[in-house]
UniProtKB/TrEMBL annotation:
GO MF: DNA-binding transcription factor activity; transcription cis-regulatory region binding
Region (Disordered) residue spans: 1-25
Protein name: HTH-type transcriptional regulator BetI
Keywords: DNA-binding, Transcription, Transcription regulation
Gene name for this UniProt entry: betI_2
InterPro entries, per the entry: DNA-bd_HTH_TetR-type_CS, Homeodomain-like_sf, HTH-type_TetR-like_transc_reg, HTH_TetR, Tet_transcr_reg_TetR-rel_C_sf, TetR_C_Proteobacteria
Polar residues compositional bias, start-end: 8-17
Coiled coil: none
DNA-binding span(s): 45-64
UniProt superkingdom: Bacteria
Domain HTH tetR-type stretches: 22-82
Statement: the UniProt record of this protein carries the keyword Cell membrane: no
Length: 218
C-alpha cells in the first residue's frame, strides 16, 4: 500500500507543505472526480477538470503534470482511504463471526456503490494502456484489505479460534464468498444493486461457509 501511494504522489504531483496547498490539491481532486465520473477517463480533459475545480490550468499543472497522474492519484487515494477504514479490525476481538459479519456487510455496501463500480470500470478500461493504474489500484485497495484481514485471521489462528491455514488465501476466500458474483453483475450492468436483505443473506451464508471450512478443529 505504501509503495503504491508513494508512486502515485511522486508522479506529476508536487504538493507543498502548507495547509493551503493541501486544500488546493484536495479541491483539484474533487473537481477531477466530478469530471471523470461524468465523462470517463478518455472523455475527460485537463481543461474541464480545471474548470470543475475552480482553478486555472496553470495551477492544475503545478500539482499534476498530466491527466494520467491526476487519475492515478484520485483513484489510488480514494481506494487507499476506503481500505484503511473498512478493514480496521481489532485483532483482540474474539468473536470471529461477529467481526466477519460486520466486515462483510460494510464491504458489500461499499462495493455496490455506483461511484465505486464506475471507478473500477474506468481503471479496467485504462490499465491496458497504462498498466501501472491497475497495479497501483490493486495494491492500494484489494491487496491492502486482504493484508489487514489476514492479520486478524492470523491472530485468531494463534488463539485457537480458527484452524491452522493459509490465512492470506482464507481472507480472499471470505471476501469472494461475500461477493459471489455480485461485483461482476454490477460491472456489466446486468442487474440492480443488492438490497439490504440480499447483503444480509450473502454475508450470513459467507460467514457460515467460512466457519465450516476454517473453524476450529473439533
Amino acid at each position: 500500500m505504501t509503495g503504491a501511494a508513494t508512486l502515485t504522489r511522486g508522479q506529476g504531483t508536487q504538493p507543498g507543505p502548507s495547509s493551503g496547498e493541501g486544500e488546493k490539491r484536495r479541491q483539484i481532486l474533487e473537481g477531477a472526480r466530478q469530471v471523470f465520473m461524468a465523462s470517463g477517463f478518455d472523455g475527460a480533459s485537463m481543461g474541464e477538470i480545471a474548470k470543475a475545480a475552480g482553478v486555472s490550468k496553470g495551477t492544475l499543472y503545478v500539482y499534476f503534470d498530466s491527466k494520467e497522474a491526476l487519475f492515478e492519484a484520485l483513484t489510488v487515494e480514494e481506494k487507499e482511504g476506503l481500505a484503511e477504514n473498512l478493514f480496521r479490525l481489532d485483532e483482540a476481538d474474539p468473536d470471529v463471526r461477529a467481526v466477519l459479519t460486520r466486515l462483510g456487510a460494510s464491504y458489500l455496501a461499499m462495493m455496490a456503490r455506483p461511484e465505486h463500480v464506475s471507478i473500477i470500470r474506468m481503471v479496467i478500461g485504462a490499465c491496458e494502456k497504462f498498466p501501472r493504474f491497475g497495479q497501483a489500484f490493486y495494491e492500494a485497495g484489494p491487496a491492502c484489505g486482504v493484508g489487514r484481514l489476514k492479520a486478524y485471521l492470523d491472530a485468531q489462528v494463534t488463539a485457537g479460534r480458527l484452524r491452522a491455514c493459509d490465512t492470506e488465501l482464507a481472507a480472499k476466500h471470505f471476501l469472494q464468498l461475500c461477493q459471489a458474483g455480485m461485483l461482476t453483475r454490477l460491472l456489466f450492468n446486468a442487474g440492480a444493486a443488492p438490497t439490504d436483505d440480499e447483503i444480509r443473506h450473502r454475508v450470513t451464508e459467507a460467514v457460515r461457509v467460512f466457519h465450516a471450512g476454517y473453524g476450529p478443529e473439533v
